[in-house]
Amino acid sequence: MERTQLHIPQKSSSFSTSSSIHRDEKLCDSDRNLSLRSLRMHSTDDDAPIPDDAGVNDNKVEKEVDKEKGIESSPKEKSTTTPEDTSTKSSSTPETPATPANSATAAAAGEVPGHSDIPSLCEDVDHFLAVLRSVDDSPEVLPELPDIAIDRFASLVEKEIAKYESGADQWSPSTAPDEPNSFLDCLDRASKLTNALSIFSSEPSYYQAMNHTGAVVHHAMAFLEDEFHTLLAEESKPQKPETKTKRPPSFSRHESDRCALQQADSEACPASGNDISSPHQSLELTARLRSIAGAMISSGYETECCQVFSIARRNAMESSLTDHGFEKISIDDVLRMSWESLEGEIASWKKAFRHAITVSFPQERELCDGVFDSPHRAIADGIFRNLVRGILIQLLNFAEAVAMTKRSAEKLFKVLDMYEALRDMIPKLDEIFPPIASADDPAVADDSHLDIKTEISSVRTRLGEAAVAMFCDLESSIKSDTGKTPVPGGAVHPLTRYVMNYLKYACEYKKTLEQVFREHQKLDRATSSSYDDEGPGDSGNNCRRDGGGGGGGRGSSRNPFAAQLVEVMDLLHSNLEAKAKLYKDLALSNIFMMNNGRYIVQKIKGSIEINQLLGETWCRKKSSDLRQYHKNYQRETWSRVLGCLKDEGLQIKGSVQKPVLKERFKSFNSMLEEIHKTQSAWVVSDEQLQSELRVSVSAVVVPAYRSFLGRFSQYLDPGRQTEKYIKFGPDDLEAYIDELFDGNPLSMVRRK
C-alpha cells in the first residue's frame, strides 16, 4: 500500500533539548544506590491487592502520553471499559489468562489485564518484534499494533529513569546482572522496538508508538551518557576522603551495592582511590562501564559513547603528565626559553614520557579492552590509538622543539637523553599494539599503529641530527679559542680541561653517539648522492662526510664517531701547540705541552670508552710525544748547566786554570739560582709527572756536580775562596731541584 515517509525523530549527540532538564536534575546531591547492570524493573504481584489509586495514576500516564500524541482516548482505553472489551483485549496474551474477577479489578483500575507487570510487557514486545521480523518491508496488511502494551512498557521505563534520576527509589543489587528484564535489557528492547517501528513509520499508529519509545530511548541515552562521564571522571582522579563530588555517581559504592558483582556477599571490594596509574583496578567499575557502553552502542549512540570516553580519558592522561611535571609548551615558548629553564623541562619530559609509555598507555589499553570488549574490539582499537596519538603529539612536539633550539655543545647530553628515551620506548609500542589480523584479510596483520612509530622515529632522527651538530660544534669551540695570553706557569689550559671533561662525559653515551653518527652518515650520503663533487655539502655542522679526518686511516669508515673524536683531539693538539708558542722560554713551552699532554693521557686512561675509540696506536703516540717534550725541556734548561761541569777548557798542559775554574763555579751557581727562582714558580700539577721531572733532573745533574766537586774543589783555597765559589753541596743541589715546579706565587711575581 502507498505510504508517505513521515519525520523520524533523530538523536542528538549533545542531548540539548529535553535531556538538559534531566542533566540538571541529576546534578543535585542525592544518594542513589544502583548498579545498572543489576537494575530490575519493578513488577506487580498478581496475587497482591492493587491500591485504589494505582489505576488512576497509571491511567493518567496513558492519557498524558495520548495527549502528547494528539490522540483522543478510545472508549476501550477509559476506566469505564466493559468486561467484554477487556476480555477481548486480554485474549491476545494467553500467557496471562484473565479471570472475571481479575478483569473487573483491572477494568476498575484503568489497566489492561495481563499487562500490569514488566515480564508480561516484555513478552508482548518480544512477540511483536518477532512478528515484525517475519513480514517484509511492504506488507499488504500491517500486524496489529499492541499500542497499549507498548505505551505501558515505555511509560514504566520512563518512570524508572525518573525515579532513578531523582534518587526517589532504592534498588536492591542483584548477583545476576545479566538476568532478563533488567534495566539495560529493557532499554535494549526499547531501542530494537523503535528501530523496528521506524520501518513502518508512515502508518500513524506505528509512528506514534515509535515517537514514544524513541523519546524514552533518547532520555535513557542522555542519562547513560552522564553516568558514563561521571564514572570516568571519578575514576580518573585520586580519591581523597574529604573530597565530595558535586554529583555522586549513580554507581555509588555504598554498602548496599558496592559488591553487587561479587559472587559472595562476604567479599569486599577494594577501596576506590584509583588514579590515572590504575584506572583498571576495579573490576566492578569496568563491568559497569562496559554495560553502559554496550547499551549505548547497541542503541545507535556509539559516537556519543566514544566521545565521552575519549575526552574523559584524555583529560586524565594529560593530568598525569602534569603530575609528572610536564606542562604543554608551545614550540615558540621552547625556542625562547633559557637553557637553564629548558634543562628542567627536559628532565620532566623524560619522566612523563617514560611513564606514559610504560604505565599509562598499557593501562589505557587494558581499560579500553575492558570497556569495549570483543564485539566492539575495533572501537577499542580506534579509541586507544587516538588517545595515544593525542598524548604523543604533545610529547613529540616538545622534543621536536628542543631539536630546533640553537645548537651548542653543552646541550648535547640532554638531547641524547631525549634521543635514548624515544629509541628505547619504541619496542614498548609493539607490546602495546600487538599485531592483530586485519578485519578485511585475516592473513594480513593490522599495522595501523606504524604511523605512531613513524612519528616517534622521525622526531628521534631530528634529535640525532641535532646531537651530531652539537658534538661537532665542539670543533668550533676549539678553533675559536685563540687567546693570546699564556697560562701562568705552563699549567693545564682551561680549554684542555673543558674538552677532555666534555669528551669523557660524552663517551658515557658511546653507543648512542655511535648510533647517531652512523645514522647521520647514512642520511648525509643519501642526501649528497645527487650532488657529485660538491665537497662537504651543507650538513649544518663541521663534521666531515667521511666521518672525520684524523682517523680516516684507522677504520673511520666503520665508526664515524671514533673518527670524529680523533678529529677533535687533533684540533686540540694543534691549538695547544699554537698556545705553547706564546711562551718566550722554550723550556716553559715544553712544560706547558707536558702538562696538557699528561692531563689528556690520564683522562683517556680513566675512560674505557675514549680509550677504545681512540685506540692503542693513538695512545702510544701521545705517550711518545710526552717523552719528547720531556727531553726537550731537559735540553733547553739543563744542557747549559751541565756545560759548566765539563772538563774541557779547565786544563792547559795538565795544569788547572784557576780563573777558568772560578768562572765555572760562578756560572753554575748563577744558573742554578736563576732556574730555582724561575722554575719553582712553574706549575706541574700532576704529582707523578712532577716527581718524574725532578728525579730525571737530579739523576743527571747531581752526579755530574758531585763528580766535578770531587775533582776540582781542591784547587780552590780553603776558607773564604771555597765559601765564595762553592755555594752548594750535592745534597743542597738535590733539595733545590725538589723545590722546582711547586708554583711558588712569590717567584711568579718576580718572573717576567
From TrEMBL:
Biological process per Gene Ontology, one example term: protein transport
Residues of the Exocyst complex subunit Exo70 C-terminal domain: 348-739
Residue stretches of biased makeup (Basic and acidic residues): 21-34, 59-79, 233-245
Keyword hit for Acetylation: no
Comp. bias intervals (Low complexity): 80-109
Any GO molecular function: phosphatidylinositol-4,5-bisphosphate binding
Region named Disordered: 1-118, 233-277, 524-556
Keyword terms, alphabetized: Exocytosis, Protein transport, Transport
Top-level taxon: Eukaryota
Pfam family, one: Exo70_N
Gene Ontology, cellular component aspect: exocyst
Similarity comment text for this entry: Belongs to the EXO70 family.
Function: Component of the exocyst complex.
Name of protein: Exocyst subunit Exo70 family protein
